[in-house]
Amino acid sequence: MTRTALKHQVASGLRTLRERAGISREDAASVIRASVPTIGHIETARSLPSGLQLEKLLAHYGCPERIPAFLDLRERARAGHDWWSVHPADAIPAYRTLFLGGETVAERIEVWDPQHVPELASTPDYAAALLRATDTPPEDLDQRLALLADRQRAVLDDNAPAVTLVIGEVALRWPVGEPAVVRAQVDHLVALTRRPTVEVRILPVEAPRHPGPFTLLTFPGLGLGDEPTAVYEETMVSGYHYDSPVDVARYRAAFAGLVAESIGPDGLPVMLRRLGF
């Protein structure tokens, strides 16, 4: 498990225990004599608490018996390495590392993209064509594709979470590179559906729901009887994380609507034939 993934384990566990105890972030901050944003950073895996902070927080949450397990997680996180650490430091924007780490440890990944095949499911040729279309410098292309290959391997092969991809029909209609590139991409999507952990769905253009792209990451509950979830959205210049229960509930409802209105595995062959594949 990567360093960032282990940080996610610490973060989600602490947040769950705090909320279960009915303790506010303000109260938690006062216990360790820190600011409220510090608690926020700890609970969103942006930073690790010190050992002493961890002990004080868990004692205040009424679960001192969990201190040894959390201290072990913290030490493993401090000593761990992320899969992208073998690549140049500037190869991944800083705002993306939190998402990539969470993606690596998630037990369920749900992705909606109305315009493109999601990166986790893209072929090298499809990804290269998109990168060229966004004016990626030629000298950066190989590095970006190597990163993508390592990411797909780390998530789909090593972690093997339950993955649901809802893709807009437009993504399969738009030309991306040569026609053979899109056809090979569709063949790859079909191959992915043969994996027991992957579900591919297509949202028809006539469906009424068309929110912007987003990803839902659901993390292991650490035996706490919960399923902590985070939402990630990305623009051309930054990434945004949402993890409050209210925000997550809205995105989860939106994704449920997309799933309900999309074509699933049973109807996928017919739809692909209708699209000419």
TrEMBL record:
What residue stretches are annotated with the HTH cro/C1-type domain? 14-67
Which species expresses this protein natively?
Answer: Actinophytocola xinjiangensis
GO molecular function terms attached to this record: DNA binding
What highest taxon heads this organism's lineage?
Answer: Bacteria
Q: Which residues form the signal peptide?
A: none
Recorded hits in Gene3D superfamilies, A to Z, give: lambda repressor-like DNA-binding domains
Do you know which CDD domains this protein is assigned to?
HTH_XRE (cd00093)
Protein name as it appears in the record: HTH cro/C1-type domain-containing protein
Q: Which PROSITE patterns does the record cross-reference, listed alphabetically?
A: HTH_CROC1
- SUPFAM superfamilies, per the entry: lambda repressor-like DNA-binding domains (SSF47413)
Q: Write one Pfam family the protein is assigned to.
A: HTH_31
